Amino acid sequence: MSRKIVGPFNRVEGDLEVQLDIQDNQVQNAWVVSPLYRGFEQILHGKDPYDALVYTPRICGICSVSQSVATARALANAQGLNIAPNGSIATNLILANENVADHLTHFYLFFMPDFARDIYTDKNWFNMASDRFKAVTGSAAKEILPARAEFLHLMGLLAGKWPHSLAIQPGGTTRSIAIQEKIRIQSILFNFQRFLEQSLFADKLENINAISNKEALDNWLEKQLTLNNPGDFARFLRIAHDLKLEKLGRAGDIFMSYGAYEKNGQHLFQAGVWDKQLSPFDSTAIREDISHSWMDHQIQAVHPYKGVTIPLADKADAYTWCKAPRLDGRVVEVGAMARQMVNGHPLIRDLEQQSGGNVRNRVIARLLEIAQVTMAMQAWIDEIQIKEPYCEHGKMPDETQGFGLVEAARGSLGHWIKVKKGRILNYQIVAPTTWNFSPRDVNGVRGALEQALLNAPVIEGEKNPVAVQHIVRSFDPCMVCTVH
Amino acid sequence: MSKHPKNLVWLQSGGCGGCSMSLLCAEGPDVFSMFEGAGINLLWHPSLSEHCDEDFHSMCDDILSGQIKLDILCLEGSVIRGPNGTGGFHRLSGSDKTMMQLIQELAFKAKHVVAVGSCAAYGGITSAGDNPTDSCGLQFEGPLKGGILGENYHSQAQLPVINIAGCPTHPNWITETLVQLAFDEFGENHMDELGRPRSYADHLVHHACPRNEFYEFKASAVNPSDLGCMMEHMGCLGTQAHADCNTRLWNGEGSCLRGGYACINCTAPDFERPTHPFMETPKIAGIPMGLPTDMPKAWFVALASLSKAATPPRLRTNARSDHICIPPGKSAEDKKGEKS
Fold first, then answer.
1. B225: nearest CA partner in chain A
2. Which residues, including other chains, have CB under 8 Å from residue A156's CB and lie 6 or more apart?
3. What is the three-state SS of A354-368?
4. What CATH number does residue B308 fall under?
């Protein structure tokens, strides 16, 4: 048995180390380490509740809007404030803009460059992968960056800037738009759709959304590969098929979603838990365990309302700054795949039934979401009533509590706030990658990535096991959110 | 065009990665093309490079032994000194070293050291509250010189740390400074007293604020989404904040003020620890405590009361609305006539 410590693990957001026990060319055991602690929950203590709108987006530069939305919803919940209909639409547009841009960044800049590594030089797709996806120099990067930047012009129009906007408020948004901005946003979305239909999919978004099972996907891929210039989705599927990425990185196959893009009490992607079947999601069943975290002052796993965050650097048996959240004691996986399982995307349900949650299926779910959400955004902007209010106004009681749940690109994000004497008494954050990359809990049960890494193949003499790279990045981890 | 490629290493510590995400929004051209044109060779960036793990550690060893020259070292995020001065809140992955240690070692090898964002420059958001991680900037701790490298630190090119402050930084503040460095066209005269590039820090956020007419007549917003000036009630510090956010614009056509919310002066040291809630203006006897930069107080008070007395009804109405109720040249009566 040999111990391998992989770090720094790049092309993830933030700092990550993975420790592996390797024997017989397989990962036998894994520990996921978050080596950076910043203390946002401590920083927020004693602040004016609305100041959280400034601090929490700065937990993370890539999930900044998701953090804003979670705070805004928690503050609204704490004062019983309703959101103005336009504000609700604008919030969804801003959030969708970040989430879709993040999916795109993940696919092109973080995930695909691994297939251009030297270890794959003997593959018949290597030249394609290298020309197209090589880190920094690949042809895709030069296309994706301008398209992404132009897509994010929506932020300039609706949120002032990205990242770190204060436009998202408990009662709506601060930026009212007039007809000229509405038209600009419609044009940006049209142009972004065209980019997706040319580069990423080489097909109409409607056709992508209509692929309803594995067989249909295989047929679609076959047709794509006859094109002179297939889409990058098809290029990925070809590589995934060759490398059998559907056999890599299976975790516990329990999927959770808080529900994404809420409007009039309805979600575009519904909330729920998938554990062989669908059941409702209940936030009171969440507990955070610190048995293996460098954290103190919590005897047992507690609900976030009762959570404590006091670091203890030299705690025995601990190996990460990350806490271990559990739902009814269960380890759950979150992210695009989980959202689509819960919401019942027929293709994702079919793929999961055949091979579970794995590297390939996680990436497919993310790309399907790009297609679905881009179309939803175009419907939302049409619904904005430009002369109607964007923001409702309320007053925060001196003593109250509230929570806000949102789906970030990488999965379920929750904030829990307690207010006393008009100040924040306790603020607890449970981020998507806190779920996916949690350490073991008090019963020794591994977190989702730790499970997914078991049995990963290691090629003889391999310095950086590439299968491990694929598995880790398939979760699109955000480490700065994880530990905050 | 630079003759010799310039090696750039980008590290992240006590921050959110938001300055990198903002950098990827660079346009006309994109950041990779900009680097290519300036001859900047991105040796390592945590979000963008292919290699990791052992390749990273051997690259650092080669820089420290002098085998690889390090022209530009960028740090994003604060330097974390806690707990108890050990730096243990941020251990460098895959090693026993702290990030604090690595930053110091590389800083003494680098030709130029650039703090990207207010965290790396002054401590920033990560040092807010009681500063639980004992964070500081590279050469500043809040407004005081010092930081991890010390007041007297100079890079191999005999420059202090260049502080591209902002939370986050505008992509062009970064690209333009880095290209100036790559072309050997950046000197100490290009920095203000807080180490910020004067190319953007010689401006005020107030410049070209689209709410300037409301400001002139003290027609003020009272609620989020109102169109009026946000200085009097909503905590806006645009008249004091050093940056060109309203002349350069963000993500196409945006800025904080254009987005309808206050400037929180994020390019300044200690912006993260105001003595009042961010979105409220502290006042003494009804007069905002922080006055516009370079404006004598008595003059401001006199002007403000004069302009308040002269505020046109159009501005008074529009200031507290989320859309233009009364267009220029119309009165409220015209407006009523329009509606019926």
1. A174
2. A162, B249, B250, B251, B252, B253, B254, B258
3. HHCCCHHHHHHHHHH
4. 4.10.480.10
Task: Please tell me whether residues B191 and B213 are part of one structural domain.
Answer: no
For the domain that residue B10 is a member of, what is the CATH number? 3.40.50.700
Domain range spanning residue B182? Answer: 6-201
CA B163 from chain centre, in angstroms, equals 9
Distance from CA of B267 to the nearest CA of A (A): 13
Distance CA A86, CA B87 (A): 46
Tell me, what's the ipTM?
0.96
**C-beta of residue A213 within 8 angstroms of C-beta of residue A347:** yes
Q: Please write the tens of the pLDDT for every residue from A459-469.
A: 888 888 999 99
The domains found in chain A, sorted by start residue, are 2-483 (1.10.645.10)
Residue B1 belongs to some domain of the structure:
no
Instruction: Reply yes or no: is the peptide bond before residue B83 cis, omega within 30 of 0.
Output: yes
Contact A158, A173 (CB under 8 A): yes
Identify whether B330 is part of a domain: no
Say how many Å lie between the first and final Cα of chain A, rounded: 34
Q: Are residues B190 and B309 in the same domain?
A: no
Question: Same domain for B169 and B207?
Answer: no
pTM of the predicted model over 0.90: yes
Q: Which two tokens stand for residue A191?
A: 């142009």
CA-derived radius of gyration, chain A: 22
Q: Write phi, then psi, for B115 (nearest 5 degrees).
A: -90, 115
3-class secondary structure, A279? strand
Nearest to A54 among B53, B260, B278 (CB): B278
CA of A143: which chain B residue's CA is closest? Answer: B30
Mutation for B interface: A164, A384, A426, most B CBs within 10 A: A164
Q: Are residues B302 and B164 in the same domain?
A: no
- pLDDT higher than 70, residue B1: no
Shared domain for B207 and B144, answered yes or no, is no
